[in-house]
Amino acid sequence: MPTKIKMITIPLLIEAILMAVATLFLLLGGVLSFGVSLRQRVGMGGGFIFFVIAIGTLVWGIVSFITYQAVKERKEWGHVLSIIIAVLMLFNFPVGTTLGILILIGNFSDEAKAWFVSSTPPTPPTVPTTPTPPVTPAA
Length: 139
Fold this sequence. Notes:
Layout: H1 3-33, H2 38-43, H3 48-72, H4 76-89, H5 95-107, H6 110-117
Helix pairs in contact: 1-3, 1-5, 3-4, 4-5
């Protein structure tokens, strides 16, 4: 795998792992919030908000991992989705910004263009055929 492609796949994998860890912490926060008094729980949305954010974080991590696999398998949609993810990651300062920049650098390199172009099967050349005249037996 070319170096610039690793600049795409490794940050995507790191993002997926970070989202899995964040999901666990959010679920833990949601569970622990149910142990506090009712007055405090109302102020925290009853712990429900932790679970909602955990679901969103889990979905983001799964999408990052699926994109990681698609880029490794040279899928064109993985290339496009990795660019979209990278742009959205730029807002997650400082770690997401760094990972997003690495993914964008990798995506717009010549190695990445060659990586994704070589994944499409070449179209067979069309050879013009001329009709052959019928063969008549000699008398």
